[in-house]
Amino acid sequence: MSGGAGGSGRASAERAVLRLARPYLGRLVGAGLLAAATEFAGLALMATATWLLMSAAGQPPLDRLTVAIVAVRALAIGRGVFRYTERLAGHDAVLRMITDVRARVFATLSTGRSATTQRSGDALSRLVSDVEAVQDLLLRVLVPGAAAALVGVLAVGGAALISLPAAGVLAVGLLLAGVALPLLATRLTRRSADQVAPLRGALAVDAIDLTHGAADLAAFGATGTALAAARGRAERLARLERRLAAAGFAVDAAGVLLAGLTAGAVVLVALRSGVGGVLVGVLAVGTLAAVEIALALVAAARQRTLLGAGLARVADLLTTPEATAPTATAPGAGGPDLGAERTGAADTGGATGLLPPGPGPGPGDAAPALAEGPHHVRLTGVTVRYRADAAPALDRLDLDLPAGRRVAVVGPSGAGKSTLTAVVTGTVVPERGRITVDGVDLAGYPPEQLPRAVGGLLAEAYVFHATVRENLLLGRPGATDDELAAATRAAGLLDWVRDQPHGWDTVVGEEGGQLSGGQRQRLALARAVLAAPGVLVLDEPTEGLDPAAADAVLASVLAATPAGHSVLLISHRLSGLADFDEIVVLDAGRAVQRGRHAELAAAPGWYREQWLRQEAAERGYLALAP
Ligand SMILES: Nc1ncnc2c1ncn2[C@@H]1O[C@H](COP(=O)(O)OP(=O)(O)OP(=O)(O)O)[C@@H](O)[C@H]1O
């Protein structure tokens, strides 16, 4: 990741972000000109009003003042109109651009391609506050900065019409206010500002850990330590922010002093060069107004310093290579289903709206499109290693999954089963070997199309703080009520939904917190069944269900899978596998046994041992069950 500290890193991050502004350049330039017009109207208003007041004191005939009176009114009204249209144009351009940036950042997060986004707090802060840094860079740095520079030049030009030496003094004052002071402000605040953004990110992660992990922290008696660490970070952040504020006030005070000194110097020089009294007054007030406008560059510079780290983090995501090293799916991204459209179903009771589709930078426009329906997935010699010095999580694995075939993968904990699902869904890129879908390299497909072809229920499926209907529609936007009912019935959740007062519109709570563990699992499973990808991946689909329910649910889910669709089941339970075409036993990433259930249950090895052990345990469980 490009660090936020270095000037060149900062500049390249800004360039990466600003490249996205190109389509809106016209609107942004328009907003900049309107901002300049606003400031210039303010400056001209002060100068004209001063001329009017001072001239009126000499009681000249009214017709000599008419133009100035009209000009004052026009400038006052014009300034308001310019300000309004500038805000409208600037925000319009920036909000359009921000939508693009958010979509891209989200696309990168949801495809799990960024190796640096493993934490949900971090991902959340990137999607929200870091992306706002892009908005601030344009609206609070570039547009006002450019406007102030332009008005400064115009002010010096205007002063030169009255007195050249006075214009020279004004130019020096403006350079000090608009260049030297901003540089000083940047120098004074950079070090603290570089520490503020990571600290804020750490506090966002603390907040999530302390709330989501509260029960576990309490269970291990670690609440006090975790709170103390978070408090320590919060206090450090407060100290830094106080320091930043103090430096800011000192620079602001220097700015006010500079405005007064410049105005005084302009008056002296103008008087010496014989400028008349009224015009000296105009120069003095105009100078005060012009320096104040130039001081906006101090605020812009300060803002720019604060934005550095956030911009670097966004740029890091925007420039993440398509697929490089093995990466885990970003937690909370909810797996591939999140490409679904916002459903707009009934009131979610304060629930999060589900996320919009991200355009997802595909590997190339020429990539083949993945149609709905059956697909043929094949793995040849696939090796995955999470770290260079670690043993492979998958070791030269071959797997053939033609249309309609059902393969179960079993094996001890850590054998590589979930890694296999990550590989076939494209979230982990193997170090060696090939994965093809219909004969074409998996990496050749646009990432946003893959979930429709290869997907389903992945490890730790996420249930959103939304209604049952919205959670389900994520799998297949636009599904009918009958389809919802069929998928929910297959997962054994339909009776529960029908018993709820709000039925499909029942809000399930944050992370499905208002459901039991089994209901949450069934809801996630129903979503996978509804999605009906051509290759249905089921990673421990019956986790958390009792043995009898597990067998029934697995059977009904398999029965609900459309003909021709293949199934890749990851399971630690060995019952219900009798009808599978192939069972692969993984151990340390290698396929150590392959065959159908009857063959494996008869042959000596891990499968037979495990099968006998589970049979005995479940017979005991069933005997004890009421
Ligand atoms: N994101 C990761 N980073 C580093 N190592 C990982 C990561 N995910 C898995 N591993 C390692 O890869 C190996 C295979 O893990 P994997 O989760 O695929 O096993 P599994 O068979 O699904 O295990 P379980 O049945 O316990 O879920 C393990 O040794 C694990 O420690």
TrEMBL record:
Which terms in the GO cellular component ontology are assigned?
plasma membrane
What UniProt keywords are attached to this protein's entry?
ATP-binding, Membrane, Nucleotide-binding, Transmembrane, Transmembrane helix
Looking at the keywords, is Ribosomal protein present? Answer: no
The UniProt record lists the ABC transporter domain at: 377-613
Q: Where would you find the membrane-spanning parts of this chain?
A: 28-53, 65-82, 137-160, 166-185, 244-271, 277-301
In the record, biological process GO terms are: cell redox homeostasis; glutathione transmembrane transport
Membrane topology field: Multi-pass membrane protein
Q: Where is the composition biased (Low complexity)?
A: 341-355
Q: Which Pfam families match?
A: ABC_tran
Task: State any single GO MF term.
Answer: ATP hydrolysis activity
Q: Which PROSITE patterns does this one have?
A: ABC_TM1F, ABC_TRANSPORTER_1, ABC_TRANSPORTER_2
- All copies of domain ABC transmembrane type-1, residue ranges: 29-309
Q: What name is this protein filed under?
A: ATP-binding cassette, subfamily C, CydC
Q: Where in the cell is it found?
A: Cell membrane
Under the heading PANTHER family, the entry gives:
ATP-BINDING CASSETTE SUB-FAMILY B (PTHR24221), ATP-BINDING CASSETTE SUB-FAMILY B MEMBER 6 (PTHR24221:SF654)
